[in-house]
Each structure stands twice: as structure tokens, then as C-alpha cells.
Amino acid sequence: MERFQRVMLCITATFLLSLSLLRFGWFNQASAIPSGTILIGQIKITSSNGQFVSLYNNTSADIDMSTVQLAYYNYYDLTSSKLTSSRFIPLSGKLPSHSYYMVSDGALLICYKMIVNAQSLGFSSTAGTLQITQNGPSNVLDSVAWSKTAVTTPTGVQTLPSSTSGFLQRAWVEGVSKTANDPWISVTPASSDSCDLQTQIAASSTPSAPIANTTPQSVKTVAADSTNTTTNSNIGLVAPELTELFPNPAAPQSDDNDEFIELYNPNPQAFSLAGYRLEAGTTYSRGYNFTTGELEPKSYKAFLITDTDLQLSNTEGQVRLLAPDGTTISETPGYESAPEGQSWSLIADNWQWTETVTPNAANLASADTVTVAGTSSSKPKTTVSTKKTTTGKVDAASTNTPSSDPSQLNDAAPLHPLILAGVGAAAVAYAVYEYRKDMANGLFRLRRYLRNRRAVRARV
Fold first, then answer.
1. Pairing, β 52-57 against β 370-371
2. What are the structural domains, with CATH classification, of the chain?
């Protein structure tokens, strides 16, 4: 009886372990992301607070940042005995396509739009390596190694800027595809304008293309045309955001007069629309160019069809806003079968249909359950801008506590299904071992029974 209890305890433990692994998603490894999908664009190393690293989504799809993590090592050569410690830093949130994500340990001047994640970093100002990894250290998407002094072996180690305000930045050129092999440069903010970066090519990097003396290009950066003084006034501001579409007005309103596209200006000052362009349709075949006009600070502005001549389809469609250089800075998800009298609205970070149409005002959900892009909600919600302003303008920041234990990270060193299979096999083997004598005795009795039965039949 005691052995039976031990066997049952072992089987129960295996079952509970299986449930735990499924509960925490250790079997659900994220699909492998190819190298170069997420790139390290900037890194600043200091001896105190003020460190940061920026990541770039080099794809046309959004990326769930909880599926990747930063891996930090305190030496530039990972095979050296001088490497004595490492640490994994979890990430969170969603990184839109061709956008930036910054991990910072303090307040920053932000010169272009990005996601900001507040973290305690603690990178060594003498030497180190930083990797962006997925599913543990076996899948490294990009990496950078640095040293306070020039290093020739191994190759590719970046020399840190001597200036305390300087940092390393990838030598990306506008219009040229970004890769993990792009060289690094040393940049220092100008004393007169912290967003104006003075570039010096790092000793260990020799770019083959001209270096752009600007901050990295982001899909949501406010680009300036040097010949357009109106657009120049937008430098350092967050780009406007599409917030509401009204494609199918109900009577007595009409499609010809009351359809509208709404923009929101999250900045504390006016935003000039000169040179910007709205495009509508599933293939963006219809467009409207802004030649003048501006959005008032912290305000919504609905542009009627009578202003733009942009007809919104009732069956399917979407809208995007382009910067003067043609970059998409805001884009709605596509909609289908527009309900009469309802607007396609951005409410609490989700696009959904709502019966409460609110041109020139914050969006409100319907009192009844409404369909949300990706989720559903049954409670009224009021739109709250997710933009936060510091000295610059950034998206809402999230805060995590770094962990030195990879097992505490999402998808960090995930458990392979074969491990659980091995545990289950071990439990079965243990049960067979514990009951080996009982099984042998049972087999002996069965054979004896069969032998006696054959003998009885033979006599009959």
C-alpha cells in the first residue's frame, strides 16, 4: 500500500507540473524571429544614471516585445575569463512597424516619437555586450559590444565616446535598408540644440555610405523641410493621430455632406498640417493634400467630406496620414460593413464601432457592447491620449523590474516539450520499478492459471 501511494504521488506531481508549464506558457514558445528583425539603434553608457538603449522594428508588422529580452554581459568578449556576470532585462508592450522602442534608466530629452520603457540598466562603463534575444540566448537578433578604450580583438567592439553626453548610434541613411551589419558612429548633442547630433565616425567603424547628421528616422518622426518654415515649426512634436472615421451617416445626415475624418494633436502647441496628406480606401487610391491649416493644441479636428472630397466606403476601407516626405505617421486598421450612424473610433487604444459620434471631441463608446479591433468591451469608455510629454514627446511608458534569473522572464530559456516527456517517462519507469515484484508475481499466477486450465480441458 505504501508503494502504491508513492507511485500515485509521483504521477500526481507529474500532472501538476504539466498544468504549471501550460499555465505559464512555457510550452508556447513564440515563433522564432529572424536576425535583423529588431535592431539596436542607439546605446548610451555612463558611469551613473542616464543610460539608454533604443531598438528599431525593422519589419512592416507590429512586434510583441514581451517575446524578446535584452541580455547584458559585463565584458565585450563572451569567451573571456573576464566575463563574470550577466543579466536579462524583460521588455513589454507592442512596437509598431518601423518604429523605435527605448529602454532608459532616467529622464530623457526625446526628439522623436517612440515607446519608452523605464528600467534600471547598470551597464558597465568600462566594457560590455548587449544582445536582443528571443527564446533564450540561442536566438540573438542583434548585438553590440563596447569598450572604454580602443580594442582590435575581437573585431567590431565599439569605442565609447569620451564626452559624457555622447553615445553610440547606428549609421543609418534615409532611404537605405537597415541591417545588423550597419556600422556604428559616435554622436554628441549640440550645445545649442540637444536634438541636433554632431557626428564623428567611431574608430572601429568605417561606413560605406554618407552619414546623416540627424536623429534616426522613425515612421512617426515629424520630418522638416528646410524650405518650408511652417513645417519646421513641428520639429520635436509628436505627429497627429487619426482618431475617428464616419463613413455611413444616418438620415437626416448624408454621405455627401457629413462624412468626416478626425485627427488629434497631442502636443501642447499647434501643429502645422502644411505638406501633409490624407489617403483613403483599401488601396489608398483617394487623397487630399493639406496646403495650409493647423491643429490646435491638445484638440480634435474633424475634416468633413466637403473639405477634403474624400469619400469613405460603407463596405470596407481605411485611412492613413502621410508626412511631407511620404512617410506614414498614422494609419487606421481596415473596417468592413460600416453600420449606419456609427463611427469607426479609437477608444482606449482600440478601434471599434460606436453609436456615439463625436466630431471635434474625445471619443466615447456605445452603452451597449461594441466590437473592438482585437478585443470587445461592454462598458462605456472615454478616450484618453496615450501620449505623455516630458521635455520631448513619447508614448506611454511601462515599468518592469529587471531580473537576473532567466527563468523569471517571459519566453526566456523556455522549457522544451521533450523535458516534460522525459519527466513523464521517468514517472512511469519508477512505477514499473516499484511494482516489479508484484508484476512478476501476477504474471506467474496468470501463467499458472492458464496452464491448469489447459490441463483440465485435456482431461475432459
1. unpaired
2. 2-26+415-459 (no CATH), 38-221+392-408 (no CATH), 237-388 (2.60.40)
